[in-house]
Amino acid sequence: MIDRTKIYIGGEWVASTSEAVTEVFNPASGELVGRTPSGGADDVDRAVAAARAAFEGWAATPAAERIALLDKVRDGLRARNEEIADLISDEMGSPRSFARLSQVGLGVKNFDFAARAMEEIAAEGEEEIGPTLVIREPIGVVAAITPWNFPLHQISAKVAPALAAGCTVVLKASEVAPLSAFVLADLIEEAGFPAGVFNLVSGPGRTLGEHLVQHPDVDMVSFTGSTGAGRRIAQLAAPTLKKVALELGGKSANIVLDDADLAAVIPTAVKQCYANSGQACASLSRLLVPRAMLPEAERLATEAAGSWTVGSPADLSTKLGPLASESQQQSVLTYIKSGIDEGARLLIGGTTPPIETGAYVPATVFSDVTPEMTIAREEIFGPVLAIMPYDDEDDAIRIANAAEYGLSGGVWSADRDRAVAIARRMRTGQVVINGEPLNLRAPFGGYRQSGLGREYGRYGLEEFFEIKSLQGAQS
Ligand code: NAD
Hints:
Blueprint lengths: L1 E2 L2 E4 L2 E4 L5 E5 L6 E6 L3 H20 L2 H17 L1 H12 L3 H29 L2 E3 L2 E7 L2 E5 L5 H15 L2 E5 L6 H13 L6 E4 L3 H10 L5 E5 L2 H11 L5 E5 L5 E4 L5 H13 L11 E5 L3 H13 L19 H16 L3 E4 L15 E4 L6 H4 L6 E7 L2 H8 L8 E4 L3 H9 L7 E2 L17 E2 L4 H6 L2 E6 L5
Parallel strand pairs: 1-5, 8-9, 8-11, 9-10, 11-12, 13-14, 13-18, 14-17, 16-17, 18-19
Antiparallel strand pairs: 2-3, 4-5, 6-7, 7-21, 12-20, 15-16
Helix pairs in contact: 1-7, 2-4, 2-5, 2-6, 3-4, 4-5, 9-10
The protein binds nicotinamide-adenine-dinucleotide.
Family: Belongs to the aldehyde dehydrogenase family.
Keywords: Oxidoreductase
InterPro entries: Ald_DH/histidinol_DH (IPR016161), Ald_DH_C (IPR016163), Ald_DH_CS_GLU (IPR029510), Ald_DH_N (IPR016162), Aldehyde_DH_dom (IPR015590)
């Protein structure tokens, strides 16, 4: 059991002013795996004051020095990959094999790519527009608020570029999976960042999180989480007109065109929905197939879903672990029931957990899903694939764009140009063509209810700057 009794403020591990504690449970076994402080407004006030005090010095620190510190954190994460991945697996149920491959690896890349993007910006120098010099300045104190599904990845996608840009940070990680945030704070301390540049508070979103969002000395809120919480945060941030970047939910469509090789495509399409037990914002949870190909797609999807070995996340052969919590399990089972009740055809899976103890949900595939059904409209965040038949390309685009979300999408075709033409018509922030692996240097973010702003690489870094015009600086 990991007992983290202190929070990190102003370069020191200090006691929270609250004695309350957050308990973290392994969703496979119910075992207590960790404890963290559960603080409130006082902790936030102290952390924001420390970040504010550190801002001017950090913003003036040469980019090369900031980058060197980020590279130390990257190396520290890489060196402790397996240990941190196993910790994340214990706290939120991600299968160890997947966690070791992705959970920490993405964090390493975020630190690396933020540093490289900052190098690029520094090397380019400042822009001149006639007599005006246009300069970038770090936006100030950034509140980073993150969810549990890829805890370290989502933290690093904000913290690394914010620090690279010269901002100071107050991080509030998910109370469901907070432990990797504490390890990151250890690494930041070991790297030797100046006091107050990075601060970690810990506690519930509704109290501590809301105080942070409303704080007048916070200049920007960078949030990843549910669309509901994102809406609330945008409202709470409005009175102080601080910048808000929101990475929210999705209900992404994966369009299989009629020239695609189904036998090759469908197993990967199932993986694009089930990875991390379906708990991914960019999960491709709606599979759109030409009506004539439906029976073959159904057969292959059922076979592929059946091969997702369910088991303990600690077992390296497990592909489908438990969901992150019992409440997440109940929510997903309720969605599966709604699919059955609203007339979708269940091909595999259903409402009976495959393992009795733990937050397990069976690998589930529905067919004949129509756009008005709940399971076609709402983010499920579990291993539930909705197959939706379509008549022609226009119909596929209509179905894909019918969702309120617009975070990701996919297209499969033997003809790349045809796939790209379809991808251009999808109202979403990212489209994965023929199963291309995620490129963390390219921008990621949502249209419509999926959010505001972009993360990753150069675009993600640009979010943390204000732009200033020095009129007459060149004349
Ligand atoms: P959540 O919205 O419940 O919580 C996310 C974080 O926000 C947590 O730290 C929580 O404590 C905090 N929070 C909640 N309400 C708050 C409030 N009113 N004020 C301030 N902070 C508040 O989300 P979750 O259940 O942890 O994560 C799952 C959701 O995250 C899914 O909807 C998923 O799609 C989304 N997500 C989006 C992305 C993306 O990049 N677009 C990535 C991963 C997850």
